[in-house]
Structure formats: C-alpha cells, structure tokens
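Researcher: Please translate sequence to structure tokens.
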Amino acid sequence: MGVSYSDIIERMRWAGKLKNDSAVAKVLGVTPQALSNYKKRGEIPTDLVLRFANIYGLSVDWLLTGEGQMYRTGLAYVDETKRAEPGVGEATAPYGKEAPRLPDLASLSPDEIIYVGKLLKILRGQNKTAIYAVKWSMDALLNVTEMAEKQEKVAPQGE
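Model: Translation complete:
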C-alpha cells in the first residue's frame, strides 16, 4: 500500500481548516514552492507530517491513511524531547523567519481554548478594523502585564 502525499496534504488542509496549500506551507514553515515540489515528487519529510500532527493534535495514522480516529486521544506515545513545535529548530519558522515559541495546547483549560477559538475567528475574518483592534488590544494588555510583572519583581507587594 503506497502513501498518497497529495492526500496527506489535502487532509492537512481540511483538518487545519486552511484555505489552500500556501496556508499549509506556512503552518509547516516551508515555502509554497517547497510544498508543491513535495507533492510533485510524491514525498514529504516525515518531520513535517509529525509537526503538523502535533500542532493540530491529529493522529499520525489518520493523517497518513485517512483511517481511524482523526484526533489523538492520549499523548502518552509522544516523545516530548523530539516534539515538532513552531519556533523550534531551523526550518520550523515560516519563510526562514524566527517564530515565537507557542505554549503546549494540551495545557490549556477549556475556557482558554474557547477564547483562543474566538480570537482566531476574529483574526481570520474579513473585518480589518476588528482584526487591528484585537491585535492592538492584545499588545496593549501584554505590555501592561509585563510592566506589572517587572514592577512586582523590583518591589514585591507587602514589603
């Protein structure tokens, strides 16, 4: 039984709710041309498949074959030291740019997941004003939080 790499990339698009192959390439940290070449040659580096599965919590078996459960039910089989996450390693950042390290999604509470989903809905939407407002607000909140943490380190409360 051969593996259809075009099917794997199509499952990646579907599972990640990505609009096109360029969006898949961006998530994988490769250029759209590189992804197109993988498709044409009928091969894709294993680390890219593992990275995508890890980012979206997908079963590697499902990603490769389209059979079985789509999402991983447990993380016991994942080797944390070799986990492919955005921002780790040389080729993980989109188009050679350094990407920020993202938190492990498994550590998020249900409420946090809901709000991350709501933020993504806004950020992926068409309303540019709302997108800029959310980005500006998040940056402002982060700056205030970081300043408060620095002040707390300098002069802990209660002293």
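Researcher: Any highlights?
Model: Confidence is low (pLDDT under 50) at residues 75-100.
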